[in-house]
Amino acid sequence: MPRNREDHPYPGENGRNQYGNDDRRKKPGMNVKRVFAISLSVVMGIVLISGGVVYKLGHDLYSNINYVADEDVQVVETLPEEAEQETLSTEERTGVVVSSEELDSIHSKMKSLSDRETLADDDIYNVLLIGVDRRDKSWNGNSDAMILVSINKAENKVSMVSLMRDTYVDIPGVGYRKLNAAYAYGAGPLLCETVTDTYKIEVDRYAAVDFFDLIDIIDLIGGVSLEISAAEAKVANGYILDMCNLMDIDGMEHQIPEEGGFIRCDGVQAVAFARNRYVGNSDFERTERQRYVLSQLMAEVKQMSVAQMTEKMQGLLKFVTMNIPETEIWSMIPELPEMLEYDFEMSRVPYDNMYETIWVNNQDMLVPDWDVTLEKLQEQIYG
């Protein structure tokens, strides 16, 4: 049974997207089990490779990861200039302008959530997978991709929930901001605390990569094949020029054909595609593209031999930052084959028809209907 926290030391719902259309019409290679596997093997790292890999090899692989203890992460009070959140003009906004009284009412509602129970359970393992957007490593970066992976061993189920970056939340010690700002102020620990306090789901562990590291990971794997529309190609090519300029390489050599198609993408091209939020319904469809890239990346990994996977892992794990102890990883290894046979659910929060968009500080913010959202999310994860 779920117990109180104090006792404990992008498809839409039902397979439909935000337009009400059936999301089960996957792009080529889309498979929820593969999404989960790549989340664990590439982002969480370690030995999804094979039960036959010896401890010494697994230990050596783990030593390549950037393990950071929570107590070694500091919360910053002032962010660098490049950390500023994107602002919108009055003409660009889609959110409803709210009065100060209406905003106070929203804040009061959010504060009242502190009375709700935060669920935790020995049979539930929650880990937050994070994709970080930053131009350099001088600061933490904004977490523009956040997927809460919940493994329910009692019900043989895995839930993967995309948390929308523009969700309006109260970040502990910081104040009201977009959810993705929590990582900028205090990296993984503060983001996990914010998610726990906001969504009333106990989250202790995280694994993070930034987009430049993801470029290197995809290139090490050997690239991915993606179906890209002409509109998506046009936007992605703009991102490619920007990223290549920062990397001091020729962006024209990485341009995607303007007509799109089924393209064999290198790391720069795949990450540019995943970052696109200007085609379709903004960040809602961007989270779908992110899941698509992960699924296609896993399709590449699944074709490798154990020896090939081991060689790739030794090169790419250095790009992963996490707070998952090695002992905890090893305790999960014997259970992984069984876990891959679990039922899988994918969704995102805010859920369809359970939020409104407001305009605050020249930014569009998503405000879920918290009562029904938390009830639905806790039911999805804890049953």
What's the SSE blueprint?
Layout lengths: L2 E2 L27 H13 L10 H8 L3 E2 L28 E2 L2 H13 L6 E2 L3 E10 L8 E11 L4 E7 L4 E4 L3 E4 L2 H19 L5 E6 H11 L2 E5 L1 H18 L13 E5 L1 H9 L6 H21 L3 H11 L4 E2 L3 H7 L3 H4 L3 E7 L5 E6 L2 E6 L1 H13 L1
Parallel strand pairs: 2-13, 3-15, 5-10, 7-14
Antiparallel strand pairs: 1-4, 5-6, 6-7, 8-9, 10-13, 11-12, 15-16
Helix pairs in contact: 1-8, 5-7, 6-7, 7-8
Notes on the protein architecture:
There is one protein chain. The strands form five sheets. The protein has a seven-stranded mixed beta sheet with strand order 2-13-10-5-6-7-14, sandwiched between helices. A three-stranded mixed beta sheet has the order 3-15-16, with no helix packed on it. A two-stranded antiparallel sheet has the order 1-4. With 383 residues, the chain is of the alpha/beta class. The chain contains twelve helices and 16 strands. The N and C termini lie close together (10 Å). Helix 1 crosses helix 8 and helix 7 (267-275) runs antiparallel to helix 8 (282-302).
Task: List the main descriptive attributes of the protein structure presented here.
alpha/beta, 7-stranded mixed β-sheet, 3-stranded mixed β-sheet, 12 helices, 16 strands, 21% strand
